[in-house]
């Protein structure tokens, strides 16, 4: 039987050598498979024992090992048992480099993907910026496959210096063609690094007001107060002045009101203390000042400034409503009243002379049958919000 295997040949190689090569390939595939399973089991046990996030990522990465690369590696092991020429031996060495490099690239690519998914899905106190995470993942993947491609070409004997130079010239042409896209791409990178806003922040710019719903590589999506989604280019978004109300620590409130001119000085002196008590009783507030500001056209004007220690707009409205009601009750206790709009009517009577009715000198001039009416005063403003 052995003589027959030695005599019969396929492609110039004895059949016995082919048998050795097949057996070596099968054993190589089995050994590599069980070795991989052994490493995965050990890493999984380590991850369960230490609760290490890095060990869990390592297990997930190893589980993504390609069976194809293991099979090709086993074939190369079997081919080493064949009496090949030096030319084929050199090619097998190139195949080894290609298989090992490709498998390492797959592992790194899978690790980057797992890292990206975990960072984007993170909740709690630490919420990572999605733009930086996505940009970093894209950069690592592009760098990984570029290095692998250049290494394979260099291993095959290709002059990669000229190849890289040609890629640089082509990259300039592509960059000019997609200038607007690259502008938005770098704008998203600026958003990720500078962090003028994050997911969930309430921003206002121009006539747009809403919450940040998604920060992408080219556009940012905002959910407006009326419910529709507004898609803004990152470049155009950064050109505007944004008001980020999510980062407001406290809200400064300034409002004025007026009392009528029939008030006495003793009553007016008690108004600031009454306002201070009303603001303090509203809760979540910090009183700043209340002053008799001046003499208005129709009222005695008071100006009040206080702070709401929580930036919530609904809380501010609740506080302002309570302060307004307490001020109304306080003025009633002090015997004061709000200044109301006043319309003064002055009637001028003039005796008729022999010369007849005098000529009208102006549209508001008084005549016996036409009174002079002065314009109405503006109603008082109870509250005005700033900042």
What does this 3D model show about the protein?
53% of the residues lie in helices and 16% in strands. By secondary structure, it is of the alpha+beta class. It has 3 domains: 2-157, no CATH class; 181-247, Roll (SH3 type barrels); 249-348 and 366-387, Alpha-Beta Plaits. The strands form 4 sheets. A 5-stranded antiparallel beta sheet has the order 6-5-4-3-7. Strand 1 and strand 2 (13-14) form a beta hairpin. Helix 2 packs antiparallel against helix 4 (67-79). The radius of gyration is 41 Å and the shape is elongated.
Give the topology, please:
Layout: H1 2-7, E1 9-10, E2 13-14, H2 15-50, H3 53-63, H4 67-79, H5 86-120, H6 130-155, H7 160-177, H8 179-194, E3 202-205, E4 208-215, E5 219-224, E6 229-233, H9 234-239, E7 243-244, E8 251-259, H10 265-282, E9 285-295, E10 300-308, H11 313-334, E11 345-346, E12 372-373
Antiparallel strand pairs: 1-2, 3-4, 3-7, 4-5, 5-6, 8-10, 9-10, 11-12
């Amino acid at each position: 039987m052995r003589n027959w295997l030695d005599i019969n040949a396929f492609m110039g190689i004895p059949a016995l050598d082919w048998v050795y090569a097949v057996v070596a390939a099968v054993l190589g595939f089995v050994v590599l498979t069980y070795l991989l399973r052994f490493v995965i089991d050990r890493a999984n046990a380590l991850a369960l024992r230490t609760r290490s996030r890095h060990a869990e990522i390592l297990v997930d990465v190893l589980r993504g090992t390609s069976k194809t690369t293991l099979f090709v590696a086993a074939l190369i092991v079997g081919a080493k048992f064949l009496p090949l020429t030096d030319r084929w031996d050199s090619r097998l060495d190139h195949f080894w480099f290609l298989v090992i490099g490709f498998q390492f690239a797959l592992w790194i690519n899978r690790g980057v993907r797992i890292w990206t998914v975990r960072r984007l899905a993170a909740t709690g106190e630490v919420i990572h910026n999605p733009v930086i995470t996505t940009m970093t993942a894209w950069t690592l993947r592009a760098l990984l496959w570029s290095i692998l491609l250049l290494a394979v070409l260099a291993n095959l004997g290709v002059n990669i210096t000229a190849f890289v130079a040609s890629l640089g010239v082509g990259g300039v042409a592509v960059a000019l063609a997609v200038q607007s896209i690259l502008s938005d791409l770098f704008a998203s990178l600026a958003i990720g690094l500078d962090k003028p806003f994050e997911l969930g922040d309430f921003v206002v710019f121009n006539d747009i007001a809403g919450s940040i719903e998604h920060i992408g590589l080219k556009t940012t999506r905002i959910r407006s107060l009326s419910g529709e989604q507004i898609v803004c280019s990152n470049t155009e978004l950064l050109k505007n002045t944004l008001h980020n109300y999510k980062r407001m620590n406290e809200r400064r409130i300034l409002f004025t009101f007026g009392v009528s001119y029939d008030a006495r000085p003793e009553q007016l002196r008690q108004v600031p203390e009454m306002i201070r008590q009303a603001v303090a009783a509203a809760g979540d507030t910090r009183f700043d000042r209340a002053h008799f500001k001046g003499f208005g056209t129709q009222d005695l004007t008071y100006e009040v400034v206080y702070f709401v220690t929580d930036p919530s707009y609904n809380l501010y409205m609740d506080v302002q409503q309570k302060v307004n009601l307490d001020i109304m009750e306080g003025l009633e206790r002090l015997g004061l009243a709000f200044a109301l709009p006043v319309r003064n009517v002055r009637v001028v009577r003039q005796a008729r002379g022999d010369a007849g009715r005098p000529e009208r000198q102006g549209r508001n001039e008084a005549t016996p049958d036409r009174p002079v009416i002065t314009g109405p005063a503006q109603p008082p403003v109870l509250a005005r919000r700033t900042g």
